[in-house]
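The methods section describes the discrete structure representation at length, but only in general terms. What matters is that the chain and its backbone geometry are given together, residue for residue. Nothing conveys this as quickly as seeing an actual entry. For illustration, here is how one protein appears when written out as sequence plus structure tokens:
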Amino acid sequence: MGETISEAISADHHAIDEMYEKLKSAPDLDTKVRWRNQLTWTLARHAISEELTMYPAMEKHMGQEGIDLTNVDRQQHQAVKEDLQMLQNLSPSHPEFNYLLDRLMRDLHHHIEHEKNEDMPRLEKLLSREESEALARSFQRTKMITPTRSHPSAPNRPYFENFAAMLAAPIDRFTDLMRTFPKEESKL
């Protein structure tokens, strides 16, 4: 059996928390930059993939309740994306970096609690195991083609977001070639 959508999203949340801890405890500036880049890369891809896969599924299967929940989710994502955009361009040596990083994680955990307690249980109740696994596979595949940086001014609704993501992703991936990331043995 494969993972369900709840399991896939929860695994990402756990990995993001681990990256945050690695970033906070990094012994030097170079290592902090690498973990900041990894956190940005992972969180940007995760957020857009949720918006392109899980949110439309919620709206389809849950009707108006799903629409209402995803509207809240999109507002929460917007706060995370705005913090992430500032963080991705800020040196870890900047005096505001730790404050911004902590605010990002507070906003993110507020959103994670909403997903864990509201979105995922309601959606999973309406999906068969096979449908949930298929949605998880779609979520994972979507992460492979989404932008790797935060673009909070981009549209966050399907079709418009899909188009914006397809334009931003190649540019992000090209600039990723010039960024440093944790060494493979220390990656999560």
Notes: The chain has a mean pLDDT of 89. The CA atoms of residues 5 and 137 lie 8 Å apart. The longest helix spans residues 29-62.
